[in-house]
TrEMBL record:
Residues 1-18 have a biased composition (Basic and acidic residues). Coiled coil: none annotated. Keywords: 4Fe-4S, DNA damage, DNA repair, Hydrolase, Iron, Iron-sulfur, Metal-binding. One of its GO terms (biological process) is base-excision repair. This is Type-5 uracil-DNA glycosylase. GO terms for molecular function: 4 iron, 4 sulfur cluster binding; DNA-deoxyinosine glycosylase activity; metal ion binding; uracil DNA N-glycosylase activity. InterPro entries: UDG_Type-4/5, UdgB-like, Uracil-DNA_glycosylase-like, Uracil-DNA_glycosylase-like_sf. Residues 72-249 form the Uracil-DNA glycosylase-like domain. The keyword Amino-acid biosynthesis does not apply. PANTHER family: TYPE-5 URACIL-DNA GLYCOSYLASE. Residues 1-23 are annotated as: Disordered.
Length: 259
């Protein structure tokens, strides 16, 4: 998978892993950005947590080697559709090394992506399970698993250059962004605003099914869609049903011309 971290971008050697986000703007492609993301040590609290989780492990995964590093985005470098979540799960992406893979949230998301024709498989279990994305990429505003699934505002800001650069590298192809939850919504609009996009004032509020077309002074356009997060809290209570999720994905697929 992209983001295996086996080689360091040249810029990381000058900045050091504690300042990896500062090198993001100098990456020359998605693969290089993914490697940079997976090498990051910028947030001490998150580094300590991802390492501790991998040491203690969950009983069901006691024989597995955890990834225990920042989890890069997953999907093609010419995606027309970007899904923005929150952060990797401690025993999901932090274990498998792939976004939305190995936990209940990922199971729900991939089942819906597969159902509408945006992923080749419906049951993500590992980084080498053979699933491929179709015109779609998965990412998050925070790339390390946070304690209690709650990144701090400072951690979100520190990680923001990665999302900013990802959006720029997808620039030639990106048409639609779907945001899962309030945290990702706020993070995305902050990055878009800093990137020069015209953001309405007051800033649009998050809501399931929200839809907003944005323009950039250079002529680019993108449509942002809101969707409740695929967390167990939302899916187990029925706040987000498979049909609701598939409806938003179907709309995104049409807007992205992926039919």
């Amino acid at each position: 998978m992209a983001g295996d971290g086996r080689s360091e971008p040249t810029d990381l050697r000058s900045h050091g892993p504690e300042k990896a986000p500062l090198a993001a703007e100098n990456t020359h492609g998605i693969a290089e950005l993914d490697r940079l993301v997976s090498s990051c040590f910028a947030c001490p609290r998150l580094v300590a947590w991802r390492t501790e989780v991998a040491r203690v492990k969950r009983a069901a995964f006691r024989d597995e080697d955890y990834w225990a590093r920042p989890v890069p985005g997953f999907g093609p470098d010419d995606a027309a559709f970007l899904v923005v979540g929150l952060a990797p799960a401690a025993h999901g992406g932090n274990r498998t090394g792939r976004m939305f893979t190995g936990d209940q949230s990922g199971d729900v998301l991939f089942a819906a992506l597969h159902a509408v024709g945006l992923a080749t498989g419906a049951q993500p279990v590992s980084a080498d399970d053979g699933i491929e994305m179709i015109g779609t990429r998965l990412t998050a505003p925070v790339h390390c698993a946070p304690p209690q699934n709650k990144p701090t505002a400072a951690e979100r800001r520190r990680c923001a250059p990665f999302l900013s650069r990802e959006l720029e590298l997808l620039r030639p192809s990106l048409k639609v962004i779907m945001v899962l939850g309030e945290f990702g919504w706020q993070a995305l609009f902050t990055v878009l605003g800093e990137g020069g996009w015209t953001i309405p004032r007051p800033r649009p509020r998050f809501g399931h099914g929200a839809e907003l077309a944005l323009t950039h002074p250079d002529g680019r356009t993108v449509t942002v869609l809101g969707c409740y997060h695929v967390s167990p809290h939302n899916t187990f209570t029925g706040r987000l049903t498979p049909a609701m999720l598939e409806n938003v994905l179907t709309r995104a697929k049409a807007l992205a011309d992926l039919d």
